[in-house]
Prior knowledge:
The chain is an alpha/beta fold. It has helices at 15-26, 47-54, 70-75, 84-93, 120-145, and strands at 4-9, 31-36, 78-81, 101-103. The protein is built from five helices and four strands. It has a four-stranded parallel sheet, with helices on both faces. α4 (84-93) links the parallel β3 (78-81) and β4.
Amino acid sequence: MIDNILVVCEGNICRSPMAQALLAKALPLTRVRSAGCAALAGRGADPLAIELMAERGIDLGEHIAVDLNLQYMRSADLILTMTQSQRKRIEAGYPFSKGRVFRIGEFEKIDVIDPYRRGRSVFELALNQIDQSMERWVHKMNRIKN
């Protein structure tokens, strides 16, 4: 059973907080956390991420970026990365995680574009990619739980 999901991006201020919030909303009985491979630790979510999620009724105002760490990795049943490169780095750094690490865009065979410092249109594209990719994961997890 998948009770704990970890969503990972680079800085943990753009993509992973948005994906975390959307997954938590879609899977209310699942613990969803996020972290960054090279997190801007201690920083809040990017203002554009906050704005886009607020438009969906989701508040990212309390998000604080954290570095990927052993505790998060050990407790995660499923680890979703934004890119294939992040997946490979995580599996190399945490060999015990193999078989639990996947790209969020695995089914679509896409990497989610990094919108950091690239403007609202790129943030919207990244959020659309996350939405599209997340639907398949949510469907699979709901099938597993039922």
